[in-house]
Design a protein that fits this description.
Layout: H1 2-11, H2 16-23, H3 38-43, H4 49-59, H5 65-77, H6 81-92, H7 100-106, H8 112-122, H9 129-136, H10 144-154, E1 175-178, H11 181-185, E2 193-198, H12 214-231, E3 232-242, E4 245-247, E5 257-259, H13 261-271, E6 274-283, H14 294-299, E7 311-319, H15 325-330, H16 334-340, E8 351-353, H17 368-378, E9 384-387, H18 394-401, E10 405-409, H19 413-424, E11 431-434, H20 435-443
Parallel strand pairs: 1-10, 1-11, 2-3, 2-9, 6-8, 9-10
Antiparallel strand pairs: 3-7, 4-5, 6-7
Helix pairs in contact: 1-2, 2-4, 4-6, 5-6, 6-8, 7-8, 12-13, 17-18
């Protein structure tokens, strides 16, 4: 079989596509296989970068001192970063402690992907003092991926909570508190929420939110999401629904101003321990949004183009964790995982076309369909779902319908009454508090 592949490669040596096709047919090479590595050595000088990569990969399948020396030599002679990285990977797969000095030397490379490959090879020998010393020097490396890998290896893991990951504090179940969210959150202990989904108040663009400045607005949101981070369980999710807002001009002498809320909030969240996962676009029908394009449609003058804004962002974040998603899933009983599985008909792209919803009390509410997807995709049955800006209570209603528990805070008295009106007819068990009542409730013995 190999002889046929080798012959095909030599026949089409100047056709990179044919050479690659044949190289990728080669599987594992066993010690007892009578295969020559000469063809791979020859291909190290092939003009195609991709061919050189595959040649290096195949050379890494041989356990030979000569090949190790050849790969090291090629590493220093090679100009392409991807090929150099594959050289480091192939040498690393040999798990040869004699190559430690080579890998330590590679740690000085500028390409972080090459450095990460060298780190991966060195971690096989991390019990050796020489290796530990070299790797710990990189704990302050400017590249965030390198720092993260080494922090996991060389810094102490935070203690796990005493409660099971699936635990929900009974006093928080199906509860709504009419108070400033920051005051409420101070009364709750760490790692209480499984999922937070919210749409923050608009910056001075609706009649229910007023801030002295845009910076004050951002500082407020940052404080809320910092507290939310503390209260979120290990590796669980925060989804923030925002969009840029336009503050109308004060007179014809001035222009309106558009504030890029999603992008400014994003920078703060990643600084405070949230890991960015996805951006989902909520697309609304054009007829449902404010018409900005009308003037331009009449005069068509350049520079005055202002499109109708039919989208909002659902920015998905995960509380930074050393544990993978699989760990989170394994914290649940098999029956819960089975019951929580998402049924057919789920959205497969990050463009969600959903109509907006209108409420008699609140001027900007979540559509039920939007909450339905978020709750199903990012939580398990029995979890505690949180909305710091409860609004008209849609998230609570949907969470309850899907077998989850909810905790909402809402500062506005009228919206709080609307939540009570909306949930009272659908829930047998629910709790409504003001701040003082909630504080007393949390201080009571279980």
């Amino acid at each position: 079989m190999f002889e046929v592949i080798e012959q095909n490669i030599r026949t089409h040596i100047h056709n990179a596509r044919e050479v690659l096709k044949n190289l990728k047919k080669i599987g594992r090479i066993q010690k007892e296989d009578d295969i020559s590595y000469d063809i791979f050595m020859e291909l190290l000088s092939h003009p195609s970068r991709d061919v050189r990569v595959e040649a290096v990969k195949n050379l890494g399948k041989f356990n030979s001192e000569y090949i190790l020396l050849s790969l090291k030599q090629h590493y220093y002679e090679e100009s392409d970063s991807l090929v150099k990285r594959e050289c480091v990977s192939s040498i690393g797969r040999q798990r040869d402690s004699g190559q430690i000095d080579f890998f330590i030397d590679i740690l000085q490379e500028k390409d972080p992907k090459i450095v990460l490959q060298a780190i991966r090879a060195l971690l096989v020998f991390k019990t050796q003092e020489k290796v530990q010393k070299a790797l710990k020097k990189l704990l302050n490396h400017p590249n965030e991926m390198i720092k993260e890998v080494l922090e996991i290896e060389f810094t102490k893991r935070p203690p796990r909570p005493k409660e099971k990951h699936s635990h929900v504090h009974p006093k928080l179940k199906n509860t709504v508190v009419n108070a400033d969210v920051l005051h409420v959150l101070q009364l709750i202990k760490n790692e209480s929420f499984h999922l937070t989904f919210t749409s923050p108040p608009y910056y001075n663009a609706r009649d229910y939110s007023f801030y002295a400045s845009y910076q004050e607005y951002l500082d407020f949101l940052r404080a809320v999401f910092k507290e939310t981070h503390r209260l979120t369980k290990n590796g669980r999710f925060l989804i923030v629904n925002t969009s840029p807002v336009i503050v109308p001009r004060t007179s014809r002498k001035h222009s309106s101003k558009r504030y890029p809320i999603p992008f400014d909030v994003h920078a703060l969240l990643v600084q405070d321990g949230w890991e960015f996962i996805d951006d989902i676009i909520w697309q609304k029908p054009e007829y449902s949004v404010k018409n900005r394009i009308g003037g331009f449609m009449q005069h068509r003058k350049p520079l005055a183009y202002k499109p109708n804004c039919t989208t909002e962002y659902l920015m998905v974040y995960r509380k930074k964790s050393r544990d993978l998603i699989d760990w989170n899933i394994k914290q649940y009983e098999e029956e819960i995982v089975k019951e929580s599985k998402v049924k057919d008909g789920f959205e497969t792209t990050n463009i969600w076309k959903l109509d907006p919803t209108f409420d008699k009390t609140h001027s900007a509410v979540f559509p039920r369909s939007l909450c339905d997807r978020i709750v199903k995709y990012y939580s398990f049955v029995g979890d505690l779902v949180f909305d710091p800006f409860g609004g008209s209570g849609t998230l609570g209603e949907v969470a309850h319908h899907l077998g989850r528990n909810f905790f909402l805070t809402e500062i506005d008295q009228n919206y709080f009454k609307r939540i009570q009106e909306r949930l009272s007819s659908t829930l047998a068990y629910k709790q409504y508090f003001n701040l003082q009542e909630f504080q007393a409730w949390m201080q009571q013995e279980k």
